[in-house]
Amino acid sequence: MERGQYNKNDIVTVMIEDIGNDGEGIGKCDGYTLFVKDAVLGDTVEARITKCKKNYGYARVEKVVTPSSFRVEPKCRCHRQCGGCQIQAMSYERQLVYKADKVRNNLMRIGGFTAGLLDEIMEPVVGMEEPWHYRNKAQFPVGYDKAGNLVAGFYAGRTHDIIANTDCALGAPENQVILETVLAYMRENGVSAYRENEGTGLVRHVLIRTGFATGEIMVCLVINGKRLPAEEKLVEKLRGIVFEEGKPGKAPANKENAGKHIASISISVNTERTNVIMGQEIRLLWGSRAIRDSIGGLAFSISPLSFYQVNLGQTEKLYSLALAYAGLTGKETVWDLYCGIGTISLFMAGRAKKVYGVEVVPQAIEDARENARLNGISNVEFYVGKAEEVLPAFYAGYGYTDKDGASSGVEQEMTAEGAAGEWTEQDAVCAVTDALPDKKRHPDVIVVDPPRKGCDEKCLETMLAMQPDRIVYVSCDSATLARDLKVLCGGGYELKRVRVVDQFGHTVHVETVVLIQRKDT
Ligand code: SAH
What we know:
Rossmann fold; 26% helix; single chain; 521 residues; globular; CATH 2.40.50.1070; 3 domains; alpha/beta
């Protein structure tokens, strides 16, 4: 059907036959495709058209005529406005099917893998036992609502309008009392919130991170300035919170809700007019610089600027799978690219000879080194830098020095390892002169866990040149995963195992772990 048959604001009845990338329902009206926000697969809805393009349009549910059998009562009153939980109205079981399908479709469409191969190797999706209150980190924007009231909550989907909601169904239950306490401190001390349009006002965001295994809570206020008025009052108020222990139905999914306490209160200075939430300068107001948590028996120290997986229980499953896919026996050299605070590196270290971690955020590497010490692990080395720069520099044998001037450059490392008979300059010569590939220059395993944009081309190219026996790819975006796997499998690797692990229930996001293996091994 041609454009012109429909107009903006038309009400149409449509049956939802598919789910889009952002969780929206997809249906057809006389052959014209509509992407319908808030519709669930299997619904028949009355929808209002919000935008018409030539071959497709966008619409919003006005009324559910016949609800889908997958439709459930959403837990959160804000779920339609908030951009966070796109698929909360769909049963959790169906969400898992949707996520597995999404990964599979991307692997076929973008990666070029066949349905037959995927049928054979894709393992069952790993879901959560309790898909609520699982997030250990939340960043709440602080501002004013339309009536000018001071509020904290979430941005309404695709906007920067703040919806007041301190009771998120995905976050730690303690977040609510912490946020209300921060707001009370602001009101009592005349502290302003940031006005994004004008670039004025002080408090921009509140970051709250909880170690679910230890009960330690970090509160970090992101401010448009250097100091807050009456900072001691904020500290006093936050320290005075008595957490309700083990409130029924409110406990995080993974651990009992006991022993929660604030362990770190800090300020992040962000005076830039930017969408980036955190400012680089962190000033501790009270407590320790970092909080502790533990995964799979390992202790981790996490500071405000470091990445840390948001879902503790599922992370343990994800890392265990990555470890199993790596197939370690104790003799292997492993690279962990995009290593964050070294979580995967330390998971692997117990079963490998040597692990090298690479990460671009210097504070995360500081945490990673501290984490190695905390756990008494000495066969790991961490480097600050971009994977696409550190790895080629290492491979080329030129050595590498951290941008921050830290002493643990690869150059030094190579000399040290050289003495132990590995990674010497001589190897580089051998690689050129020997007909056989020089095994010593090949790490046995490379693990990558990049952000959503995936791996840089230079990084992929170097991985291929290094010819590890196995590559374990942990991905939070199956489209870039598929794109990168196409390059790697085009360069002599075979897709062996794929497993989807749901870290982010009720959202469209999903984690995937993949094993690819060099064809001649
Ligand atoms: N493996 C870690 C972190 C994964 S998140 C974990 O499981 O906790 C991805 C990490 O990659 C982040 O810490 C981010 O800071 C880092 N990063 C982003 N771009 C990078 C790049 N080009 N090179 C190295 N690290 C990068």
